[in-house]
Write a structure and sequence with these properties.
2 copies of one chain form a homodimer. Chain A is of the alpha/beta class. The first copy, chain A, is built from 18 helices and 26 strands. The first copy, chain A, is globular. At the A-B interface, strand 4, helix 13, strand 20, helix 14 and helix 16 of A face strand 4, helix 13, strand 20, helix 14 and helix 16 of B. The structure holds coenzyme A (COA) (2 copies). The site of one coenzyme A has 25 residues of chain B, from helix 8 and strand 16. Chains A, B: Keywords: Hydrolase, Transferase.
């Protein structure tokens, strides 16, 4: 690997440069690793790959903590190598998912704003090695992250040892993009002084005790691009419904034409819905989010968004070229912060965000399942959706009304796993329409959701359930023995749809 | 009613004094009322009672918004009078509960920190009349609340009209006890400058536009006392388990001997558990809570607690005499704030609270039901438990392992309503023991909960469920068609207990 010692401005650290294999050899069975990386961006790559190589000849297990999901198939190969004991707080890989659901390794699904707090409080095992990707190390010993910040600041601050991966293919122009701020211990902490999406409150790099740096590795791996899922008919309709809702809010005087800072979750649906704002009347928008996907840059290019704050940038190949090839154009419109700050309840509540996240399913009372397919199998994790939904001014969840060609209704009597309770969900949107649940009692919500959001093929079946439930009474009427009947039908018959009700319509 | 005009220092307001019946006559069908009152303390009483009188001769309905539950049987008589359209955000009355569950009026169960925000944002109907109990009105037009603050500040600030009930039996010594602070609009808001439980950040009364005051009523009704439920064998055991857990945290260096500011929920269990700290080694404790029950004053008297912040004081008759008879003794150890501040995520996270709330039931994966008996019937409401649990340093839930003489297991396969998700629950405690769930994956949590917290009579039955679920796999293994079997057994057989499993043990 080509060394570029100019990227290490503190020359007393030059001696620490090693090969990835060397660095990987320091890691022992039972250790806990804190890796940089947040939804495919800015992950440490060389040392984890070398660790996977080592696993071919050696048996060991480690805990892998990150910001969120890793790119470059790292979660896949780490999982396949059989070296993971515990993984947290988020992943989004098909192979890892399979191993988690088979019980082959443990996964802890956490609110993304909570992990750093738990590390600081000593509740999670101490990080033995923080392994973080960097653009450079400054003369005063700060590590400049690359395309994500994630939990890296908490990892390097509280780890016993640090390994830095300097990625020479990441432009030094990234320096200045980041804003690193770590709250003090709880109980000795001052207010976080951020009051606008574009405020800067910290340093441009991660200040570290350089004595803890055990090794520095040079790399050239680029982030893996996101697959492009172009907007389809349904996502366009969802965007239109969302825009209608926001327009109503403006008419009612509850929002101005530049709305409120926007957060949009990961995944193809949220990206497509955000994209839909390009042709809306809203202007001078700001983004205060977790991940910036393609849509945010399209909105910047269209002159709709004038500032975007996040903890990671996750782009398609095409968009990567455009953004990183023209960084000067975007620099003053972007800031990357620790996920603890992007997702902090204090900030989300203060700024009054509009938060748009994707649900797997929701129920007739407005409870949302973001994580567990049929209540048992982990999809990705709750990510930041809970941090945002609980504290946002507007907690919006979007999903297509059906999945798998109609065999699944995304609206069910009772979600088979609850990630966001009825107390936290303001508005739900499908391609059928939206339901504004704010200030409504459960019985009112059920009516509105069934009328506005459910696919026509499932309306009768859900109405029938609700009517039977009403005969039993209660604040939140249910027929408990049938509450999961949609899910058990799916398991038994391959579809949630019941013939009788279908033919009855 | 005896008038005491000295309690209205701004003499330009003396003309506004009216009888309660007069004031009640201004309220029209379809209006929304914002009443002071939080868990039996500081409720407006005279005008609501006059309104109930009016309902004997007239048909009308109103929305009733409060801080939390009302005392003096107000929720009972309002509900019986049939004049409620919608009630929010919390209640705790048996008659009202029955009417809610029968669908006779609507109830919206909200996080107690959210209501004021929704009023400020214009999401809930505007308050037509704020009706608030007061000790006095100052010369500069501030309303001094009595024994609770609740949502009164948001009500008077955003209401069209205000009616003040001056309670002459409440001591003027209460002036100075309160600290009133209202955050600005979201997006234009500064950090809330509170960094310690005993900080004062606002004014001693509620500054109002006196032009909005339509009437002032003099009253003498005292708050209704809490029933005394003395600690029993089980609650003493729970307190001991909680203390053991906290002691371990001190040993591990994660807490110091004065712990962290404590919050304890309403109800007999939480009160008894807090009481248990009297004989512990912990000292110099602080309370940052929602309601102060008897136990907090016992802890103050015992020299264990040196400061307590809350939005309401709810005491037994005995303790009322002691506290209000010796207010000088307690004054500098107490502050009463709006519930938006006592329950604010920003503050709860900043201070790093230890939060202790009572669950109705929890499941083997750590999801908690605080509100719905058998998933459908409203008990009281989520109250502040979600505000605290999500943001506390330690979110602890306590409950007896069985209820109704053993016919109910408070630990079930799947809670029939989710108020607090697995992501938000750190520690669960029953009289059997505690389970520290922090950093554990669902499969690990289930083992620990079944081993440590479940009553012996239900252990085999829950183990059998978990083992069958494991054969199905998943991150969170379940047998969906049996997930609510405990609840359906109870409905069918009057007990959750299954004979086969019992005899199998
Ligand atoms: C919910 C989530 C999985 C949706 O992802 P997405 O890419 O936007 O949505 P899609 O509609 O393409 O659905 C993804 C898959 O789930 C399936 N699916 C959708 N609804 C389903 C349901 N109710 N039951 C089972 N499967 C469902 C889809 O069919 C699709 O399957 P495929 O991959 O085999 O084609 C994703 O947004 C997520 O993980 N969210 C949780 C984390 C989060 O919200 N973070 C926010 C802050 S970043
Ligand atoms: C959960 C809550 C109802 C418990 O109240 P409590 O007085 O401490 O507890 P108890 O054990 O006496 O239980 C109250 C009743 O529920 C019953 N109960 C307890 N567990 C039950 C269960 N799993 N299923 C059905 N009923 C149950 C009890 O038998 C008792 O019934 P009774 O009144 O007929 O005797 C109460 O704490 C609450 O409303 N909590 C939600 C709000 C909150 O947590 N606020 C916190 C911030 S203030």
């Amino acid at each position: 690997m080509e060394k570029n010692l100019e990227r290490i401005k503190d020359s007393s650290l030059h001696d620490l440069v090693v090969q990835a294999e060397n660095a990987a050899s320091w890691i022992r069975d039972g250790m806990t690793l804190g890796l940089s990386g947040f939804t495919r961006a800015g992950d440490a790559k060389a040392v984890p790959f070398a660790l996977v190589e080592r696993a071919k000849k050696e048996k060991f297990k480690v805990n892998i903590f990150t910001g969120a999901s890793l790119g470059s198939d790292l979660d896949k190969v780490l999982s396949e190598a059989g070296i993971i004991n515990k993984r947290l707080p988020f992943q989004a890989d098909a192979t890892m998912r399979k191993n988690i659901n088979a019980g082959n390794h443990l996964f802890v699904d956490q609110h993304l704003s909570h992990t750093a707090e738990m590390i600081r409080n000593g509740v999670l095992p101490q990080i033995d090695f923080a392994i973080v990707e960097a653009v450079s190390i400054t003369a005063d010993g700060m590590i400049i992250p690359t395309t994500s910040v994630g939990n890296s600041l908490a990892f390097v601050t509280h780890a016993k040892n640090i390994i830095v991966e300097i990625n020479v293919d990441q432009s030094e122009q990234l320096e200045g993009l980041h804003d690193l701020y770590e709250p003090a211990e709880q109980g000795r902490r001052l207010p976080i002084p951020l009051t606008k999406a574009d405020d800067r409150i910290g340093t441009v790099g991660m200040p570290v005790d350089t004595d803890k740096i055990r090794g520095i590795v040079f790399t050239k791996y680029m982030d893996s691009p996101s697959p492009i899922v172009p907007p389809d008919h349904e996502t366009e309709e969802m965007a239109q419904h969302l825009i209608s809702f926001l327009r109503e809010e403006v008419h009612a005087g509850r929002l101005s034409n530049n709305l409120a800072p926007l957060q949009a979750g990961i995944g193809s649906v949220a990206n497509a819905v955000l994209h839909g704002l390009i042709d809306s009347e809203f202007e001078d928008l700001q983004v205060y989010s977790e991940v910036l996907q393609d849509s945010v840059f399209e909105l910047i290019d269209a002159g709709k968004v004038n500032f975007a704050s996040a903890c990671s940038i996750t782009l398609s190949e095409e968009m990567m070229k455009q953004v990183y090839g023209n960084l000067e154009k975007y620099r003053d419109k972007l800031v990357l912060r620790p996920q603890e700050i992007t997702n902090h309840p204090e900030i989300i509540r203060r700024l009054g965000l509009i938060s748009i996240n994707t649900a797997l399913e929701f129920d007739i009372y407005g409870n949302v399942n973001s994580t567990h397919v049929s209540g048992t199998k982990m999809m990705n994790g709750i990510g930041g959706s809970g941090d945002f939904a609980r504290n946002a001014k507007l907690a919006i969840f979007v999903t297509k009304s059906i999945a798998k060609g109609g065999n699944i209704s995304s609206i069910v009597p009772f979600v088979a796993h609850v990630d966001h309770t009825e107390h936290d969900v303001d508005v739900v949107v499908t391609e059928q329409g939206y339901a504004d649940l704010r200030g409504l009692a459960p019985r009112e919500r059920a009516q509105l959701i069934i009328n506005n959001c459910v696919h026509p093929m499932y309306k009768a079946q859900l109405r029938q359930y609700f009517e039977e439930a009403l005969t039993r009474g209660g604040q939140t009427p249910h027929v408990l023995e049938k509450a999961f009947s949609f899910h058990t039908n799916l398991a038994k018959n391959g579809t949630m749809l019941v013939e009788e009700v279908k033919s009855y319509v």
